[in-house]
Amino acid sequence: MIDVRLAVPAATAWVGLVVLLPEPHLLPGAAAITATAAVVTLAAALLVGRGAGRERPSTADRSLGSWLPSASRAALPVLALTLVVLGAALSSAAVHAPGRRPPVAVEAAERGGTVVLAGRVTRVDPRSGNLVVAAASLSADPAGGSGSASGAGSGSGASPARVRFAVFVPRATFRGAAPRVGDTVSLPGRITDAEPGEAESFLLHASAPAEVDRARPGLRSRAADLRDGFAELTTRLPGDGGALLPGMAIGDTGRIDESLDLDLTSTGLSHLTAVSGANCAVLVGLVVLVGGALGLRRWLTLLLAGLVLAAFVVLVTPEPSVERAALMAGIALLLRAVGRPTRGLPLLAGAVVLLLVTDPWLARGYAFSLSVLATAGLVVLTAPLTALLARALPDWLALSLAVPLAAQAACQPLLLSLDPAIPVFSVVANLLAEPAAPVATVLGLVACVVAPVWPAGALGVATVAWAPAAWVAAVARFFASVPSGSLAWGSGALAIAAAAAIVVLVAAVALTTPYRRSRRVAVALLLLVVLPLATVTTGREIGRRASLPADWEFAQCDIGQGDAVLVRSSGVTALIDTGDDEQLLADCLRLFGVDRLDLLVLTHYDRDHVGAAPTLVGRADSLLVGPPDGTADEHLVGRFRSAGSRVLQAAPGLSLRLGRLTATVLWPPAHTTPGNTASVVLDIRGDASCGGACLSGLFLGDLGEQEQQRLVGRGAVAPVDVVKVSHHGSRDQSPALYAAARARLGLIGVGVHNTYGHPTKQTLAMLRRSGTAVIRSDLDGTAAVAAGPGGVPTVWKQGARLSAAAPRLGGGHDTAGARPAEADPGDRSVLVVAGGGTWLRGRRARRPRARRRSTRSRGAASGRPGSCSSPAPSSSSPIVPSGSSATSSQPKTRASR
């Protein structure tokens, strides 16, 4: 029997915080109401309990018991405890909410001025260098002009209480070494409000180099030295294993590149790089085992285990999942010390209650939520699933399958809000990878601790630990490259509700008694839900792939508010821009069977055009770029060069062969200012071998109206079959260019219900006048264009995703114009073939991610095509530049927008 007496209060408090934290003005009232109800219910529970304990209950007790059924009397204490816990969590949130938004910070955010934030670093993203800073003071930036916060105009600091800032700033903006957890930093920048209910109260976009104060070294500083030393040590280990080992041992994911990160996510193995319960359990279990082998007293062994656990938490830094796991392990050690039994679900519930009362804003964090759900799945479902599977499998195999299946099932509904696909091979991948994880964890920790005193020995231990880490990476790479490695599901409310219903029914089947009516009912309900969903999902996937034209030449990927267009001829494939969503780009590449690119074109460096480019490092033979605008752009292009890509600088007249097609650069001319005005413009058309059967295209990036007119004035625009409409259909267009192009089809990469008003009514009307039919990713989804009979383009459309717009990623976008509306198809013949979209194919709207993402995003985060580790292109590359304007100079890059 599962003990839910503490689990119900913990779950109720969690849900209550998730709902109410975005509305802080409701917290005091909700806390007061809950506290009152808790007092009344607790009094009733005590009264009933006292009456039940008497041999002859009083008249009052008899009257109370007469109208309370026995089940209600048993549930009354649980209800009272639930209200007490919920009231405590809401009261904690109500007390701390005002201090999270001090007037000086609110005023600075409203005015948009620059300030100087001083505070202690509580968290560092090892991959992006972004920080979470607990504010100590907030003052006006002397160089910030009139945007200073009230009361701080002369540099006097405000003292915000309990205020956390998410700081978006590349490592390059720090003076000297990058800050570490526990350091005190001073950061000038612009404050903006965070989303309601987020753990961080404000966002700070740093505008100048940061001052890092290391004057107070302590235990955290020594732990940071150990982490840095171990990271440096693993740079001497090759390949993915060396990059993954720090993540598996101490949660340092700084060396894991985007491609490996996406492979781990798409195969359900990303949890191996998140320090949590498994790491703590292995460590504590090892200490207890060694203590027992040495004959130590029980209390001494448990004390040593606690000390080692505390040191481990300091070493890996207290992330939410680490805090949850360490608190559970600490409570378990304490209970063992006093001779009390330990059970998984009460331990988890107790840890959740303590953490939520201490920091209510953990409730809305993905890391905390996924950690709790995975642990709940393990403690509740592992045993019954093992028993269920053992009826057909050996016991060891049943247990091995039950563990990842339980964790995956519990987390999947929430994971769908980050990634609208279900990894098909997740359980198998975990079955193969999990045995290697403890070995890499323990040996990696040993190497980390030994490195300062015995570097050679630490390297030897790390070399041994490299093997299991490399095995895990190889498993991720392999299953990520398997076709149909993920099942498109959706991220809407209905999709998540359906997944949650399936999980509940699976749990009901596993937990009910075999051969009883309850089990039969649970099985019937499960089949009733799963079979129709499986039929619809599988049928649409098969129909979509069956209808995809095999001879497509151009394909517009639906990646939200951004551009990503594929070009293919005679087995040679190019991609023009990448969009800003790695997962949607990976889905598109997988759909069209693209694993490696012969040419990648980055028209300019706005995030909605290059945000997902890092996932393609090592997978592009050649890279064509325009003028850069800063060190971030430089770094991006440098990564491609280091991975073996040949870098070509775009210049008018440069020609590249793509199979039977020739891509000619029309823009930008030399000395053009970086940005939209310097977008790389390509004219692609077939050579003599096509015999007129190849489609032609004009790809405009985000080129503005004035630059389009200059292009027309040069006589560079000729009629084409397909035009990639500039700037997502904004108003900044030249009618003369589209009249000269006379395109049959216009491709517009645009997000659903985007806030820019793209595409505008004016642009759609202009395209109609020029006889151009419009294919929009918000309405048509991913679309492919092939040459039909008589040269008429044939269009295959996947269908729109049910999603919100992609985030606003940079300045310069046209915000005027109407909401998206259907455009007339134009007056030219175009054969449209509906391809059928996947069921509820969608993603939720996300904030701009500091690192890209795109973030991770969470998220980030499903299937992708193949490995990104590949050698440098050979001299027989099908991309053959011609013309003296081709160079291999290294561009510079602009910081992410």
Automatic annotation (TrEMBL):
Keyword annotations of the record: Cell membrane, Membrane, Transmembrane, Transmembrane helix
Record's keyword annotation contains Methyltransferase: no
Family matches, as InterPro entries: ComA-like_MBL, ComEC_N, Competence_DNA_uptake, Metallo-B-lactamas, RibonucZ/Hydroxyglut_hydro
Biased composition, class Low complexity, residue ranges: 857-889
Location within or outside the cell: Cell membrane
Region (Disordered) residue spans: 806-897
Transmembrane portions of the chain: 32-53, 74-95, 269-292, 299-316, 345-362, 368-389, 461-480, 486-509, 521-539
Topology class, membrane: Multi-pass membrane protein
Biased composition (Basic residues): 841-856
Ranges where the Metallo-beta-lactamase domain occurs: 561-753
Entry protein name: ComEC/Rec2 family competence protein
Native species: Frondihabitans peucedani
